[in-house]
Predict the structure.
Amino acid sequence: MSRWTRSSASLWTFVALWLATTAALQWSVVRFRVLILLTLTVAAAALAGTLWRGRAPELQPMRDRVPLTVLWLGSAVILVTVPLFTYLRGGARTAAILIVCLVAAGAVALLVGPWRDHRGLPVALALWAGAGHVALACVAIIGDRAPKIDVWVMLQQSSDALLRGENFYDVTWVGSPGVQDLYTYLPWMTPLVAPGRWLAGDVRWTLVLWTMVLFVGLWLLARGRSGRGPLAAASVMVTLVVIPGAITQVDQAWTEPVLAALVIAWAALVQRGRANWAILPLALACASKQHLALLMPLLALWHLFGWRRVLLTGIGAAGLISPWLVTSPAAFINDTITSLVHFHPIRFANTWFLFFLNEFGITLPFWITGVVVLGTVAIAGYAIHRRQPPLDEMLRWLALVLLAANLVNKQAFYNQFWLSLALVAASLVVGPASPSEHPEVTPRRDAAAEPSRTPGSRRESSRRP
């Protein structure tokens, strides 16, 4: 097949998998179904297969108007037809659904309407996506001022404790419907969302700002790509606003937009040859949630970042964490490590661990999860070491490792899977451009293994044997 035909078929496959996966994720809150688990597993396998073959869809919005139209309108249809869990009721629920549908329809009108060739289309589409997310957040936050979820209670009250100068690992939450004496995140998640509580009474306002930071990061990534990069970035912004389950994501105060924004900031800095500065957002992310530590071995083997910068990232994260660890070491270790290892499985988590528990009453030894996760990290690390992929492929490797860890964990919910989807979507913004084109980050002669030339890869190594 011609390159255009292959790219078109690959994009249509991506659209089909995206819609199936996001429909399953919206349905998954709060229920376990074998079909949901199988759909997520197929998506992970498809991503792994794409990475192994070195092929990926290339997003060119002007050429791909029809697939994008199907993606956006299909997302709206899923939102309306698939069971949706949210604490919004009545008019607020209706308004939230209507906003998402209007964002999808308006984006399609911009992309296929008579102004589709106007030079201002990327900016208009990006502003439309941003305005749509802000409107959705306003409806969700005002319409449900106190969601009945322990995440929101924990973030609200830990923000208050931080303002009082207390160590929130020692605080017991008042009125929490779930955990009451645990702060299960690493400490910097609270400082990163606390301004919303301090200034406007709700941490979810800060999460709106972090989503805007994510959008800015996507735009900056697109500027490193030739051609229609900004339009691709705007298209991905729309995709993330209309993604099925977006209403629940905002309503529940799930914090993955913070992590996505920081990882994309890291990627944008690396793309520009500012890998040393990229340590800062990555250290903040690692000081906010534990599972990002799984990504560090992959980045250590990637010559555009490398083990020295990973080491500095770890030192930086440790320094950020140290005030809470030093002042209350027992509580910190219990809340962030011990309690999570021994935490009871939640039966509506769509993972293989819960499959054996729900379907057969078998509680698998937790070390099996460790073996699968570490095995995935090892395979991904080997491929990265051998191939030294460009940035877009690297983002997909990171997404795959997180996705595999979710699928075998004791608990993994919509928000954890959303982070993997966001990284995959962001990789389409980068496109075929490679950060190695920047002279500032050209790998040294003593870098780790030289990239191999694999079938289907978009570029060959510039170093000959």
About this structure: Residues 3-439 form one domain. Residues 10 and 57 are 5 Å apart (CA to CA). The two ends are 30 Å apart (CA to CA).
